[in-house]
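Predict the holo structure. Ligand: nicotinamide-adenine-dinucleotide.
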Amino acid sequence: MPARKIIIVALPGDGIGPEVTRQAVRALETIAEHGECRLEIHEHPAGGCAVDEFGTPLPRATLDACLGANAVLLGAVGGPKWDDRPRSQRPETGLLQLRSALGGFANLRPATFLPALSDCSPLRPEVAGQADIVVVRELLGGLYFGEPRGYDREAGEAHNTMRYGAEEVGRIARVAFDLARGRRRKVTSVDKANVLEVSQLWRQTVQQVAHAYPDVALDHMYVDACAMHLVTNPARFDVILTENLFGDVLSDEAAALTGSLGMLPSATIGGPVNLYEPIHGSAPDIAGRDIANPLGAIASAAMLLRYSGALPQAASHIEAAITAVLKAGYRTADLARGRAGQVVGTTEMGSLVCGAIRDAYERQFAYHAV
Ligand code: NAD
């Protein structure tokens, strides 16, 4: 049977986006080299670079290409150069438009504490333990999209609206419960139900959905308590289910605890085309120096293979390659910070991961040849 063809639109974006996306694409190409899939990868401008070239952060041609693909792989967008632009010309506006058009409402953000990086976590190893968390963040509702919104500069007043409907809460809750079934069967739903009516609806709806999942344990936690438990006892969490704003904050916190923002991938699923991106931003402070950590982008490519390519084994090869390279002591600058290990640049880290993927396939072929 011919290998599955996957059409991917790559949106490298701004800052370190192009540097880390290049390494993610190399990892995908290494998988394709071994006959797992056929890849068609098309690169398009999005974010600040698209504002410079086309006057808009999400040109029509980019959006059309994304809508016609099997998956979108994004680097990062934004930077100080575009901070003072009107809202329609801000890179983040393009990203929100893209997410909205692709229709993915569930953002999955795994945060796994790797033993090889225990010295990078700000937590003591006995506190970090073997924490392995996925934050399931609702991505199309809440404060980031709610209307009315506005900033009346003359009056010195601004407002946003947090709004959720039971249907939106129900569908994201089902994603979290389904995911928990393939893991340790525990969902912690995070809200602020002691203060916000929206959170009261959230809690009630999640409770109703839970009836269909008697095999999954559910607990509820206020967002402030969750922020605290993440630093005092992260191993207590399996799947954290939460709304857009809380998820944005908590997933960055969980990420930082694992060692570096640069390590962590994300997937946005549930719409016609899934979107994969590292959780970090465009890091203008280190852009163009070949020192950014590409592992979050590479791990995002692994999620792409798992969720859009239906190639879980290929995804596991990439994830195992990342672990092997770190275990061998290689570190990008963000992970090294004066600790033991060999410091390598973005491109070299990509080469090491590709080498480890090839080693895994060679071992697999040798095993089958015996
Ligand atoms: P950031 O994630 O870009 O950077 C925060 C810190 O982490 C910086 O010190 C940076 O050097 C470091 N860092 C981030 N990724 C790294 C990596 N892969 N390797 C090594 N170090 C890394 O967040 P920020 O500084 O708040 O935002 C910078 C720009 O990125 C802003 O314009 C923001 O709007 C944008 N942004 C974009 C996205 C996205 O495209 N999804 C997400 C967040 C922020």
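The mean pLDDT is 94. Residues 364 and 370 are 10 Å apart (CA to CA).
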